[in-house]
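Re: beginner question about structure tokens

> Can someone show what the tokenized structure looks like for a real chain? I only ever see the sequence side.

Sure, here's an example I had lying around. Input first:
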Amino acid sequence: MKETSTLLEVRRKKLEECTREGSNPFPNDFTVSHTTEQLRKRFEQLEPGELEQIEEEFSLAGRVMSLRNFGKAAFIHIQDRTGTMQAYLQKDVLGDDDFTLAKKLDVGDFVGIQGRVFVTRTQELTIKVGQLQLLVKSLRPLPEKWHGLSNIETRYRQRYLDLLMNPEVKEVFYRRTKIIHLIRTFLQEKGFLEVETPMMQGIPGGAAARPFKTHHNTYKLDLYLRISPELYLKRLLVGGFERVFEINRNFRNEGVSTQHNPEFTMLEFYQAYATYEDFIDLTEEMICHIAQHVFGSFTIPYLDKEIDFTPPWQRLSMKEAIIHYGKIEPPVLESPELASQALKECGFPSSPQDSLGHLLNELFEQVVQHRLIKPTFITSYPTAVSPLARRNDSNPEEVDRFELFINGQEIANAFSELNDPIDQRERFEKQRASHEDDGEVTTLDEDFLQALEYGMPPAAGEGIGIDRLVMLFCNAASIRDVILFPLLKPER
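And the corresponding structure tokens:
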């Protein structure tokens, strides 16, 4: 702490000296002509003799990342958004005033430089600086060994330093942006319209989750941060938008883990006159499209394994998956008593009130899900755990739904949409009664039910967890590694 305090004092004194000498340590009048990447692409392959013939001067700006002072000369490396470049500061070239300023520089300062290109004896492309301007005086020293920090939460709390000192972290978020762009253009080329729906809602709906609550003072109205945009996107189907999507922020007031953050990004899209089977094909095509553009391959590395995205992907019903991976006999899956007993034998308790559908879903989550490493579509979910999905015509105890699992994680959830307003009301009523048994008070979304009564076309809808998808394509073990500023406990 004392060492840091001393360094802060030294830098503050340099700041005061600059001000006393009449220079502004925080100007905003420097014009950049080139980036470091542009100069490298243009000149790195030229011979020293060819560089000597170039009289053009270039202006760059960036943060000083290293500094070596040799009395009447100094070398610095500056970093901009595209990379780093060495600059050579020489007293005879700069003159007394600019070289005096150069001697006040610290690692972390922002500078603007103008000069010609040349190559050093070590064959490093360098700017011989003719003009130097201090753009920002950094008052805190950058960490010297950021890679060695043992407390990973510090990296999340001070993400700006994490990004600055670790280029591979910055690359994760460039890749995240690329993935979202690929998704957006893929859907637009399929005729989907991007829309925005409310993030504050009078009634939380579209998923079973605990919402965050807030209050609007003027209307004297309690509101909820959305847990899903689903019911609003379906209203748009009623209104005649046949293909819509939203890349949105959702909020769920639940646990935090390597797979969950209370604020997260989802893609939801809906298509009229489509079924969940159409979306199986569409989802496979879209994620393979991303893999090809990001990796140029269907096989990608993830932690200690490789994941093969080569289509077609495995497709199993929930019961088939339980039988195959859980080694459970088929008759067990037809009896609540036997399913409950099987769950207990696997070490997981159940409640006497649990329906067969809930028991099957629990069996799947406990004994199957973590085994689904390669991309796998699980279909034929129980109606009891799917209040918004269309019943299967052949078996009303199941719905036309799939979930996509990769590396044991749920990545996507999709179904043929329930558009029967009478059936939907009955299921909402059952869901509300179940919540009331658990001590929760819920309200029916009467406006949504009214919208269904006007008629919603047959359709399919899907949600994909963007953060989890990015985790896979960025080889990240935690969701916090792919969210710029994840929610953390306050420091004490």
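Each token stands for a local structural state, so reading them left to right follows the chain. The radius of gyration is 29 Å.
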